[in-house]
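ARCHIVE CARD
SHELF: 3
SLOT: left
DATA:
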Amino acid sequence: MIPAPCGAALGTIAAMSEFDLIARYFTRPALPGSRAALGIGDDCALLQPVPGMQLAISSDMLVEGRHFFAGADALALGHKCLAVNLSDLAAMGARPLAFTLALALPAAQEAWLAPFSAGLLALADLHECELIGGDTTKGPLTISITVFGDVPPGQALRRDAAKIGDDIWISGTLGDARLALAAYRQEVALDAAILQQAAERMHRPTPRVALGLALRGIAHAAIDISDGLNGDLGHILERSGLGAVLDVDALPAGPALSVQPRDLRRRFTLAGGDDYELCFTAAAERRDDVLRAAAACGVPVTRAGAIEAAPGLRLCDGDGAALALSVSSFDHFS
């Protein structure tokens, strides 16, 4: 994950307690069909699993200055902090159920809390994913979410399930978020329209939940592309004990990146990060099934490589010639 700059004037709420803050911005009636037997307001929430289903659980933390710039737009940040968690559920083929929010704030600021909660809860409602608890405290701005989903036993899209001969597929497009970051860092010059187009992908990623559900029983392995395709695909290869060949020129560049020079397209689609698309593998004989599932969800998918027995990731160009590209994915401790 990579940061995004934006600014907003903030006003501090006088004498607001932790419980006032939670009640005003984060407590709502239960959603229709809620799986929570007990939500916000007690020592623990009570989540009722569907009999026979497995729970899928994932946590992500966003830290100001590490995952987003100071002054990041609160509405977009509320959307993004939940989107990155829902993307993990999508990569497992899990249906969202509920989430918890742990929030450290330098101060209780109405001008920040109102849009942040609006962006967060709008995306939660879209996916029928209920906020059921968490914690708030004073401290450096840090947002930590734990999300819960469910998946039938044996149908989770695990990283260790790739098979020799599988196709490698990518959902949506890659690289626009990294292009926006490059523009913010003044590494590249973009006109205002192109920057706005790229920045939308950076600030408001779309978790591919519907596609993850549609790929149950079709795909073998999957991962969401958060830190860069080459590193994230590498996790599938490592866990599966296999290798792959990847056609870098087949990778689907985002609309803003697609008009940039070839070298930039290659580097940012391969190792850009912050894409939150799905990389998944499926048997070659399931290509029509993959395309039908993707079409039903309204999500384009691109076949860009194949799983092989020999370990390691081998890069090639559109003509099949080997490429020696020096790129690295995002590292949270680098």
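SLOT: right
DATA:
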Amino acid sequence: MKVLVTGTAGFIGFHVVQQLLATGEEVVGVDQINDYYDVRLKYNRLREIGMDPDHLPWNHPVQSLSYPGYRFYRINLEDRDAVMHLFEQEKPDRVIHLAAQAGVRYSLTHPEAYLDSNIYGFLSVLEACRRHPVDHLIYASSSSVYGLNKTMPFSEHSPVDHPVSLYAATKKSNEMMAHTYSYLFGIPTTGLRFFTVYGPWGRPDMALFLFTENILAGTPIDVFNYGNMERDFTYVDDIVKGVLAVSSLPPVPSKHWDARNPDSATSSAPYRILNIGNSKPVKLMDFIRALEQSLGKEALLHKMPMQPGDVPATWADTSALRKLTGYQPETPVEKGIKRFVAWYRRYYKK
């Protein structure tokens, strides 16, 4: 199989590519390498898989120096002609679309970035899959789509009509766009709703990274909702296993889907939505204590009210993913945090 992965300079995409290459797949990576956070981290991820950051021309393939089966393209997914040319040239069998403008709070101040990347960029991918059919399109959705929902654990079968951030609204839009293309053009699509992924090489705008940086510097950490938060923290290796297991199982139209009582997670088209998380929510203060133990240093807490766009708790019902693939996360938060801290100290020499 030839697998095209978008967002390969990003956190999850980087780990997905590493695992695909370890299993001998041919991989085509795509990223525009934007400056939402420190691009040096993105370039260093690319170095880990054999790319020379000084030689990454736009819209042209670059061969990995470490893996014969890996090529990388620096492409802006909003450039539909470039994306179409990429599909014409590479003819991927499978697409794992992880590129997106991430971050809930950033969407409050830079809404246009979310429409450009998450809507127009995804449209380019859908159109390319339409013109150059693939066996399966897997794309990143988010637990943020649950918005004002209070019923726990979050189920894919529940309606998600009340997002509380533009980021969440774009991810719900992705799901609706994917369904349209599955229905009209028969493209098998699976949307994966990620729940708070963490681990080595993670994003600097996420809590674990920010907490670690501030605790080591002796700077207070911002603890929102006065610490009364719960998150379904999921270690990146467990996420990658789930993504790759799903990728080899394209959906088919559901024989049981009823238009009079429609299930939002399945369809009469080759379409499905799946949660992918740990299914074991952790209290934020317990998360911070585990980090303090790994760092051997106590945090200074700056407790603050809930931020716009945030939700007090997330909890994934992963029963559908488990039934489909046998998915079973194996990494407890304490172990995952230790691995992240070990990487952070090595990377930043602290």
